[in-house]
Amino acid sequence: MIKLNVGACKKVSDNHYGSRGGNVNIELELDSSLALDSQKLRDHIRKLFDLANTSLEEELQASNEQASVEDFHHQRDGISFNGNSNGNGAGHAVSVVPVRYATEKQIICIQGLARKNGVSVPELLKQAGVRVFNDLTVRQASQMIESLKGSNAN
Questions:
Q1: Which of 34, 40, 89, 101 has the highest Cβ tally under 10 A?
Q2: How far is residue 143's CA from residue 109's CA, in Å, rounded to a whole number?
Q3: How far is Cα 9 from Cα 121, in angstroms, rounded to an integer?
Q4: Which of the listed residues 61, 93, 125 is the one where a domain comes to its end?
């Protein structure tokens, strides 16, 4: 048996001063006779990569369509690829993490805007219901940045 493992990963901006990403890996056992037919083996590999890439795009698109990043939790298990009689198998997709915390860039931006606007950082954190910046979600940090930018316009 030939053990074949293919994967795809992608990271995209979420337009909220952060990014999200996904990773899909598919593992499959194929009949070892495919090693003698390089074209068939390449066809299997190409099909698996197409499946991994398509699954990844679907996951990232689904997460992009969600109203709230924090509420998003979608897990796809047991993606299977059924090849010809020479082999078939199943793989697993890695789920997208449901809660994403504020990025370093968001935190730096918040600190700079707070300093510029003379806003108390502890008060900002208290209003957000957290004790430290690292407890902020990406969405909370994004809202805080927009609020601080609005304060600057006044």
A1: 34
A2: 12
A3: 36
A4: 93
